[in-house]
Amino acid sequence: MSAAPVNRIIPYSSVDGPGNRTVFFFQGCNFNCGYCHNPETIGLCSNCGACVSVCPTGAIRMEDGVVRYRREVCCGCDACLCACPRSASPKVDWMEPEEGIELLRQYRPFIRGVTVSGGECTLRRAFVIRLFEGAKEMGLHTLMDSNGNYDFSADEPLLRVCDGVMLDVKCVNAKAHRALTGRENDLVLKSLSFLASAGKLEEVRTVVVPDLLPNEDTVRRVCEKLSPHWRQGARIGYKLIRFRPLGVRANYRSVAVPDMQTMDALSRIALDAGCPRVLVV
Amino acid sequence: MSLQQEIYESTMRIATDTSLTHEQAMMNLSKIPGQFVYGFTPPEGYDRLLASGVLSDLGEGYAPICPRYLLPDYELFLEKGCRFLRIDPPKDLFEAIEALKMFYRHVPSITNFPVYLGRLDRLLQPFIRDEEQARYLIRHFLTFLDRTISDSYAHANIGPEATLAGEILLDCDYELQNATPSITLLYDPEITPDAFAARCARNDLACAKPSFANDRVYRQAYRVPYGVASCYNVLPVGGGAFTLARLNLKAAADQAKDIEDLLERVLPEAVRLNCAFMDAKIAFLIEKSLFFKANFLVQEGFLRLDRFTGMFGVVGLAECVNRLEALSGRADLRYGHSGEADALAHRVMRRLTELVNAYQSPYCAVSGGRFSLHAQVGLDTDIGVSSGARIPIGDEIALYEHLRHAGQFHPYFHSGVGDIFPFEVTAKKNPESLVDIVKGAFSVGMRYFSAYADDSDVIRITGYLVKKSDIEKLARGEAVQQDNVIWGLGEVRNSHILERKVRSL
Fold first, then answer.
1. CA-to-CA distance for B345 and B349, rounded, in angstroms?
2. Fold topology of A46-83
């Protein structure tokens, strides 16, 4: 089955790839990053019902053991998200790819592409392939925004319909990566090399967190891998994202935002390595 | 009040107003006689509809000394020079810019400033030999225009081709952040390179211009080339508009018992009187007034009588439809939100088009002997009346639906229409995204698209540009150089311009 849990669809976005794009955000991630800006997208609902009693408008109800959500009654207070013990959300629509394709058809005149994001989009492979096939028939550009914990080299059908991946490389140092995400990063690093060689790497993204992560080491080692591709004219971008304590879990709320000096220095490393597009956001 | 007393009070109000510059005071004074002296006679019954607000003469007065909008043929001027002003054809960029500066000073309009500055990129490109020098001269040229043409109805056109002159104009404007001149890109995605369109979008998000005009549609507008003048008025180059007189559809709906009454009684009478009023004024302009008989712009062929039309302005379609639905007991059906309300809006617009087209004016050969429908942007004194066919501020719908909606209604307005969208600053990093939206908007029928970023100082009010910082200054009672700020302040107070829905992109 190819239905997927969709947390949110943004009809127009200028920050998820080239031009104006429609973005699908899936629910569910296989990483559990301490600094996640949308921690409520990590888990999947287990129908425990913890959110039902805290909902002030009755938008969430338990029906036959299943949590049901009615958008039209929701006041958007997010009390349900705070009450959820699994970093999940009851406000998720299970959607068939055909429904997504129909939306793209409506938006087609105004967009040049579609981006799937998360949560983690590779967990929704079947949905993504079908959605992208439909998008390709409309002449749309297709991008995945992924944490890279996926063996892209073994998935030719996916790569055939995917024009590029925007890859999060959170940390190259294995120990620090494990501490941040709860997972190993060997697949992420394999994805970095493989996608770059396959011409499917749109950009790399690293969130810069002062003190807690070896930011400079990550940027240097990513650049070492990409430098040969850049020297051969690859247009792979490097987006350096300033950590901001917005939407993060309690233990990260007091972490400092990196200053512009730090960001400029990191950006200089990428430029010196030959990166044609460095973006600090 | 006696006539003498009225004139005394109007004059003293201006003579003692410390928030006016000398130029503004002088121009306001010059409008007074035209309110009392009748050079032509309005048709019988016109006064009644004027008093009820169904019709408006838009302050043109009753003894006009020139047409409302002039679009001189500047290419002809640069090619052959001007005898009256003793200007020879320019030989280099410096001379071309000096020639235009002198010439603009003598191009009048309803605002006493030129409302059309020509296709500046095409005018200047042939003279550019050295890029660095061109940047220096064009930068100062733009500053000169802003400081001497104190009116952002002054409108330059660029495109659809990308040129170095166009790039320089955009780069200088981006840097200078002036409100004047307004700029429109005549945009055809088949001709305009994406990178040039993106440069325009970058500027939109920094200083609210250029707007995008649907060149593929508009170049068929007349049998002669068109230009975009004043707010977004699409008019023949080498001519323009004699006059603009408007119908307020909301006020018309207020006079009607029901839908049929509006379509079959109120509108036919209002259209007949508005058209007859325009013809009476045009007859005065042509037969009695000085301009067409003696002005050098006409005598030397920069303007031609057979390239003028009359504009039939329309405001308040949204409020008209909402009022009619309420009269039918269906107040929940709102323009832009309900397919039925929109269907009614089409019915009103089709009837209006039919009525306006049925009226033959002897003076408008360039537009097929008909007056040309125009989505008027409104007046600063209007309250609760939206520009043309726009969805009211505060009642906006989701972006793509809004664009499709505008695309349905823009084609009714032959001589100009447009919608304005403020965007969040995030779009600045990706101006191409704005270009994608414009391409989509044009593909679903839109004719004219304006954008600005919500943090900009220069913003678009209804069709013209002002600096928010100038509005604040004027609100404190201090004089500001640009006259549009006065109207801008009125619009901010009466029409909630600063409360437009900001689109995140």
1. 6
2. Alpha-Beta Plaits (3.30.70)
Span(s) in chain A for CATH 3.20.20.70: 4-39+93-280
Indicate the SS3 state at residue B223. Answer: coil
d(CA B298, CA A121): 67
Instruction: Spell out the residues 6+ positions from residue B391 whose beta carbon is closer than 8 angstroms to its own.
Output: B318, B335, B336, B397, B402, B405
pLDDT tens for chain B, 505 residues long, are 899 999 999 999 999 999 999 999 999 999 999 999 999 999 999 999 999 999 999 999 999 999 999 999 999 999 999 999 999 999 999 999 999 999 999 999 999 999 999 999 999 999 999 999 999 999 999 999 999 998 889 999 999 999 999 999 999 999 999 999 999 999 999 999 999 999 999 999 999 999 999 999 999 999 999 999 999 999 999 999 999 999 999 999 999 999 999 999 999 999 999 999 999 999 999 999 999 999 999 999 999 999 999 999 999 999 999 999 999 999 999 999 999 999 999 999 999 999 999 999 999 999 999 999 999 999 888 889 999 999 999 999 999 999 999 999 999 999 999 999 999 988 898 999 999 999 999 999 999 999 999 888 988 888 888 888 998 899 888 889 888 888 888 888 888 888 888 888 7
DSSP states of A150-179 as a string?
A: S-GGG-HHHHHH--EEEEE---SSHHHHHH
The residue written with tokens 């005898």 in the block is B83
H or E segment to which residue A201 belongs: strand A201-208
Q: Choose from A8, A12, A166 for mutation: most chain B CBs within 10 A.
A: A12
ipTM attached to this prediction: 0.90
- With CB atoms and an 8 Å threshold, state whether B436 touches A110: yes
Question: Best interface-test mutation with B: which of A8, A9, A10, A14 has the largest number of B CBs within 10 A?
Answer: A14
Are the CB atoms for A41 and A28 separated by under 8 Å?
A: yes
Q: What is the DSSP letter of B39?
A: S
CATH code, A4-39+93-280 = 3.20.20.70
> Chain B interface residues facing chain A, Cβ-Cβ under 8 Å?
398-400, 403, 426-427, 429-430, 432-437, 439-441, 443-444, 503, 505
Delimiting residues of CATH 3.30.70.20 domain(s) in chain A: 46-83
Three-class secondary structure of residue B68 per DSSP: coil
Residues near B358 by beta carbon (within 8 Å), at least 6 away in sequence: none
Contact criterion met (CB below 8 Å) for A22 and A1? no
CB B317 within 8 A of CB B335: yes
Q: CB distance B433–A110 less than 8 Å?
A: no
Cβ atoms of residues B150 and B23 within 8 Å: yes
Pair B12, B37: CB distance under 8 Å:
no
Query: Considering only CA atoms, which of B5, B15, B13, B12 is closest in space to residue B36?
Result: B5
Among B74, B89, B91, B103, residue whose Cα is nearest residue B129 = B91
Percent helix, strand and coil across chain A, each to the nearest 5: 35, 20, 40
Considering only CA atoms, which of A96, A104, A99, A107 is closest in space to residue A137? A104
